[in-house]
Amino acid sequence: MAPPAPRPEPAASEVPALEIPALEIPALDIDDLHVSVDDREILRGVSLKVEPGSLHALMGPNGSGKSTLANTLLASPEYVVTAGRILLDGADITDLPTDERARRGLFLGFQHPEEIPGVSVLNFLRQAIARRKGIDDFSVLEVRLSLIEWTKRLGMDNRFQERYLNEGFSGGEKKRNEVLQMAMMEPDVAVLDETDSGLDIDALRQVAAGIAEVRRARPHLGILAITHYQRLLEHLVPDVVHVLVDGRIVATGGPEISLEVEARGFEAFRAHEEARV
Ligand SMILES: Nc1ncnc2c1ncn2[C@@H]1O[C@H](COP(=O)(O)OP(=O)(O)OP(=O)(O)O)[C@@H](O)[C@H]1O
Ligand SMILES: [Mg+2]
Questions:
Q1: Contact status, residue 129 vs residue 84, Cβ threshold 8 Å
Q2: Where are the domains positioned within the chain?
């Protein structure tokens, strides 16, 4: 029996141009978010979208509302959303509690991580991962193995896991521990609040390398990194930079924006915003 004749290739002119569909659902979509604390409006209509796999940096002066945004993403009760929405992988999480957000893959690294005396790094992670995976009794062995792997990948001391969470940790250790948690929680979106604060140059480089390592292991992870300075961004080049001033995003662009901040300070952006209003 003769083999079926091959189908003729379409002529190049008949092949439709390949269009990249704009259908990709943002990993994190913050839509016109207004947030008040003690009846004072701190965020005044913040919108930004973090695509899967991308790294966004959020810069802004002291008191501009960066941590307010992070705390709101965490569903911290003092932060009241008065308008707008937060979507995680396309699902509205604005009214969901902290736990449920974490379970769906949102991770938050804190500006000032809390000390939890009596809870070891290992046990904390075991509980957090169990909640994230919806498994009550997550095996210690599995967590231990993953910890060994990640402490190695992040260049951390393996004895770390037995220590109580953040108790007596140096500033640098706290931040590296946040990166370790991020790695092990396997989130889809990570919001890192000043992961660079209080770090010396070497620790900064290590933390940046750690974040890059987690991104390699989880290519679809979307990251929103909050930072004051260009320093972190030299090691961790962002895809998009946003500048937040007085609770509003006043500029969005490529890495050149962070250089502009470094060169001209935030005042220039503030003046720009005032001229716009
Ligand atoms: N829990 C709170 N109670 C009262 N006021 C708050 C609270 N959280 C934030 N604010 C106020 O909201 C404003 C923004 O603070 P926020 O911590 O979000 O700034 P930030 O941009 O993170 O600053 P920094 O760069 O100094 O970390 C400040 O005026 C602050 O006092
Ligand atoms: Mg802050």
A1: no
A2: 23-276
106, two tokens: 């949102």
Three-state DSSP at 179 gives helix
How far apart are alpha carbons 213 and 159 in whole angstroms?
21
CA distance 248 to 242: 10
Return the best residue to mutate from 33, 44, 66, 228 for the ligand 1 pocket (most ligand atoms within 8 A of CB): 66
Nearest to 86 by CA among 36, 120, 48, 60: 48
Q: Take atom 1 of ligand 1 and give the residue whose Cα is closest.
A: 78
* Beta carbon of 175 within 6 Å of any ligand 1 atom: no
Cα angle, residue 87 at apex, residues 37 and 67 outer, rounded to 5°: 35
Distance 71 CA to ligand 2 centre (A): 9
State pLDDT tens for residues 210-220. Answer: 999 999 999 99
Classify domain 23-276 at the CATH superfamily level.
P-loop containing nucleotide triphosphate hydrolases (3.40.50.300)
Q: Which atom of ligand 1 is nearest to the CA of 244?
A: 21
Q: Look-up: residue for tokens 């979307």?
A: 222
CA distances from 121 to 155, 158, 170 (A): 16, 11, 15
- 131-158 pLDDT, tens digit per residue, is 888 887 778 888 889 989 999 998 888 7
66 lines ligand 1 (CB under 6 A): yes
If you measure from the C-alpha of residue 112 to the centroid of ligand 2, how many angstroms do you get, rounded to a whole number?
Answer: 9
Identify the H or E element spanning 259.
Answer: helix 256-264
Ligand 2 midpoint to CA 60 (Å): 9
Nearest CA to ligand 1 atom 9: 68
Q: What is the pLDDT of residues 51-82, one digit of tens each?
A: 999 999 999 999 999 999 999 998 999 999 99
Answer whether 42 contacts ligand 1 (Cβ < 6 A).
yes
